[in-house]
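Predict the assembly for these two chains.
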Amino acid sequence: MADAAAHPPARALRARESRQRRTAWALAAPALALMVLILLVPVGVAGALSFTDYSLGNPGFDWVGTENYEKLFTRSTYARMFTATFTYVLTVVPLSVALGLGAALLINSLTHLRELYKTIYFLPVMATLIAMAIAWEFMLHPSIGVINQTLAKGCGTWLEALWPWLAGHCAEGMPLWLGDKRYAIWVIAFVGVWQGFGFNMVLYLAGLTSVHRELYHAAEMDGAKSAWERFRLVTWPALGPTTVFVVTISCIRAFQVFDTIEAFYPIGAGPGKTAYVMMYAIYEKGIEQNLIGIGAAITMLFLVFVMMITVVQRWLVERKVHY
Amino acid sequence: MTRDWWKHLILILGAIIVIAPFYTMVSYSLKSPGEIDRGEGGFFGRQEIMVDEQCVKLRDPNRDEVEAAALRFPGQSQNAIREALLEEARAECSSRPVVFNYTQAFTQAPLLRYLLNGVIVTVSIFLIQIVVALPAAYALAKLRFWGREAVFGLVLFCLLIPVHAIALPLYIMLAKLGFTNTYAALVIPWTISVFGIFLMRQFFMTVPDDLIDAARMDGMSEFAIVWRVMLPTAIPALLAFAIFSVVAHWNDYFWPRIVVTGNRDLFTPPLGLREFKGGGDGNMFGPMMASATVIVLPLIVAFLLAQRRFIEGITLSGMK
């Protein structure tokens, strides 16, 4: 009898626990199923297909071993792909991070108009990139574009003497920008920086609010007189975690560049394929040309890059990022 | 303010570069083709009445029309009637450049349909994301069950996979199921927001257990707790997530480009704009920029009205 009196609560507890377990699984099940179907299965599918010569519409396929990957590392098209991708990423990431930080520091030190600058710099982050790419294309138009028209005004003035580049173009005609092999990828990178640095600025502004004022006083006591010394000793270390995050997210976004390139070059990814970035290659090979094996191989490589970046980030975060 | 002048100088120069393409876009949407070509007219253009030659050509009267109009112009020669009709057509085909550009934007392509598609797709994505993510986030934050750590680990792992990167296998899977060129194809890959689950879980962790226990005492089921107790507490976080999600999918170009081929009825605004660009000749720059303005405007206006919330929402991913 005493036993029975002690047991029911325990049994009820266990019953409640098992009921809670079932509900919990029921609540998580849809998300879990979609996660597996939409995120994990495709990674597996891409991995498997990257070893085949599959094409959509074909009844079967053959296993081709590592042939697709060998192509990626031997053919000149893909050498161009890596060049374009890394040129873009290695230009856009440092510039958009540096400009984001610079803008945040300047704005943070102001007493007036802070909100206005913040709003303006954040506009490109919100705007539909393909629409803005078309607007940039008009501005970069070789003859009617505002950029070349402005540059042309400098011809024949003292600016020519000061700026050899301008003098050269005044003599031989204004640059074609997007149509010129030498400039294309840099112009695209410029648009990437234009679009992304406001995002980084906002993250840095948030990071700056958490830097303690006392630290600056302490640094000043210790003889850090100049603004640069204060930045080097206090601000930059305090922004460490923000920087790690900003760099990671900028990298991942930069790797995924596609909209601007497709808007500028409906076919061919730029003069001499100088803007043949990875996402464009996946699109061209996998979707347009239906060469799914090679498209899947690029996809896998892309995922490896993204994962590597994030692994480095998490490792840095775990070290708490104190320089 | 005076000793900060050099800071303002730098920031203003930056602001000019940032605003330049917006300025160009809106300005082109107001000007006539001639003004665009010659780079004249300042921001607004001169807004002189212009004649749309294409419209006049389309209304070029044929023999039947000339004869039918003979009643209106009694006693005149065929040629004179023809001239009069052409004159009428010219009058009806003239408009101010701004009116011309914006009417063309809506009539050359079914822009309204594209905008509607944009709304349908972004709203469905957001609603499904919430329906899927909220219960999962609640379970991960507040319920104890065997396997919870494993599920959460999976969420953290999936955060590493950008959906755009796996577009090719997703496309093949959807094509095999016959889903390409449907709304479903536009929405399905985004139904699971791992980030949304993660974010909501972090938020729910801060909700006191007492609140949930009280609801349980009242006899509410766990399912009801998710929607009637947790959802209301999560409104601020949900709003931020809504902005994050809507902005991303309204502007998304890559995924619609892959799964919607040719079927204009399914075009989202960015796809419509691209089609406009592909088919446009020099005269269509104005109307094209008018469509671009119409597509960009809703988010920009919303942003200007609720800046703080937008910045919070878009930089959500920075709150990890």
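Chain A has a mean pLDDT of 86. Chain A touches chain B through 88 residues (CB under 8 Å).
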